Amino acid sequence: MSPRRNRPGRRTASGRGGQGRPQPEPVDPERVRRGVAAVQAWSDGDWMVRAIPAPAATKTYRCPGCVQEIRPGVAHVVVWPADGRGDLTDRRHWHPSCWRARENRTPAVERSRNAPRY
Ligand SMILES: [Zn+2]
Predict the structure, then answer these.
(1) What separation in Å is there between the alpha carbon of 31 and the centre of ligand 1?
(2) Is 113 contained in some domain?
């Protein structure tokens, strides 16, 4: 008489469950919570760009583009070098429009010099 049904708890059905046992995945929950960054290739290198939705913007930052403050509650982007130059403390918070307009206001790396024209 053994009152406890001790099941080994193996559902051998399809093997894809693994229920109740959160397996360590490469997904960092913190990263998911804060949003996913995407690499953008610019003429001055690759940049990681992460959109910060308004509810997640809780501090005041200064946008390097317009040198204005980004107030809490304002959606913006966080940008940092993607290729390991600098480090993770080297992030910048930008207004999205300032970030996109960045190349226009930099004194022009002429990219057209290889462009054949005839
Ligand atoms: Zn700005």
Answers:
(1) 25
(2) no
18 CA → ligand 1 middle, Å: 47
HSE-CB of 94 using CA atoms within 13 angstroms: 21
Residue 17 belongs to some domain of the structure = no
Q: Which domain holds residue 86?
A: 42-107
Q: Is 22 a domain residue? A: no
Q: What is the pLDDT of residues 26-63, one digit of tens each?
A: 665 555 555 678 899 988 889 999 999 999 999 999 99
Greatest CA separation found in the chain?
A: 94
**pTM of the model as a whole:** 0.57
Q: How far is the CA of 57 from the centre of ligand 1 (A)?
A: 15
Whole-number Å distance, alpha carbon 65 to ligand 1 midpoint, is 5
- The beta strands (E) that lie in the chain are given as 38-42, 45-52, 61-62, 69-70, 76-81, 92-94
